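Quick board copy: two proteins, each given as sequence then tokens.
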Amino acid sequence: MTGTATPAPRLIDIDGLPALFEALRGRGYTVVGPTVRDGAIVVAELASAAELPFGWGVETEAGRYRLRERSDTAAFGHSAGPQSWKTVLHPARAKLWSADRVTGSAGTSIVETGAAEPPRYALLGVRPCDVRAIGILDQVLTGGRHADPVYRGRRDGAFVIAVECTEPGATCFCTSMGGGPGADSGFDLALTELTDGGDHRFVVRTGTAAGAGVLADVPSRAADEATVRHAATAVAEAAGHMGRTMPTQGLPRLLADSRESPHWDDVASRCLTCGNCTMVCPTCFCTTTEDVTDLTGDHAERWRVWDSCFALDFSYLHGGSVRTSGQSRYRQWITHKLGTWHDQFGSSGCVGCGRCIAWCPAGIDITQEVSTLASMLEQAAADEDKP
């Protein structure tokens, strides 16, 4: 058997980005991508390519995120911001239905209205770690018997344009988790941005027939071998310049064996149980429902909203909450994310984007906490071996 040949990479000049926008909008897509707003690079609906964050980068560290001006005009020269594509595909608030009590000649009846039909999204500038996160959410929210209708409605037909990383941030550790910095699958188009020598261009690879169709409407030219190698080298070098490293060998067993570790008390002394890490995480998916009515009681709505395992009521059962301490809630989050997620969904729940590190107000570093747990277990084993 012979498979379909992979299309050769193409080159798009910076002037081709507006044409890419027009090709997407002409197909009925609502384009969502990064833009500068409120002192951060956020994900938002874009009206044109001019709204991309040209010339802006970011500085990140544990508990720190700052915009910085770049020395070039890169549109995607930044690492992960406070929002992931989860905010588009799995929004923080989504109306499930509404109902009105209507009184007429036939008496009183209840009229229900379902959720509005979502637009078709084109996701522009998806980092490889977030491409992987979308794949994980696909497995969680559409892979079982009870698919999430909100996520499925927004995900179906979504067009994904990945942008490979050539400049990781200080909190990034996607290489450890197999989430980047290169994009191998899960995209319709994949861009590698190059700005060296004053020549701003993109190496473009197609991942689907839909991607090839869009690219055909964008002015491009064949990518020469030297430029393709240059782009691949830039991505490979980024893999060697990660700001963090996660010790991934045997993580599920490590966390299971650390259940009674005294280190959880140390984490609890720093953790505010604010839930920031779960809000910015591109794969945390937990939700709850809220029912609201107007003052007359004639109109009611049901909303699905994000929830967090750091909330006291998250584990509430009849008689009280199961996890009442900050220690137990942090342990639950990290153990599920890195350990028991494998049992449920066949992969880790972490993609190494580093958002939970940057946006933790206490500067708690998930890679450092795992390293400490591993060191404590090794020390305990060594102590047991002493005569």
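And the next:
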Amino acid sequence: MADSTAAPSLFIPLILGTPRQGRKSEHAARFVFEQVKKRAGVESEWIDVRELPLRFDDAGEQIKDAKFSETMKRADALILVVPEYNHGYPGLLKHALDSNLEEYIHKAVGICGVSAGPFGGARVIENLLPVMRELGLVVTSTDVNFGNIAKIFGETGELKDENFVRRVSSFLDELIWMARVLRHGRENIPPA
């Protein structure tokens, strides 16, 4: 007999934040996605900004895609896997995120930065923090930095550095905890 008092599964979609061809960040995103899918009580969905049907002839929420918006509304938390391009984040990710607002309020977000160099996307994470706050998302204190991405994953995406299993596990522990706490707050504590 199922436990009727058990909390419903958390829904934590992962967004791969670049449309570029040949993107090495896809290896990191697929690895994180597989790790989150292994978690009990967590459902996930793969979202690739390359595949979002967003218009470019308007701004903000006027370009809202109904399916993406509903996914963001249903989400308990988000995972962003974002490559660092010239110390910043990809414009298409920002465009996609800006297409929603109320859907994000008081939800957790964890960011995985990716770079070809040694800093592991630290600057992209730093640049995303004020954006996340403005969107109403609550950022985890634990990030995952995939620096020197070519040394972490092989050409076909196989993991070459097993330390990332532990790093991603710690990252997911915090994100899942925050997602549960914030969902409880959204459902049980009226806003001030």
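Board note added afterward: The beta strands are 10-11, 14-16, 42-43, 46-48, 77-83, 107-114, 137-139, 144-146.
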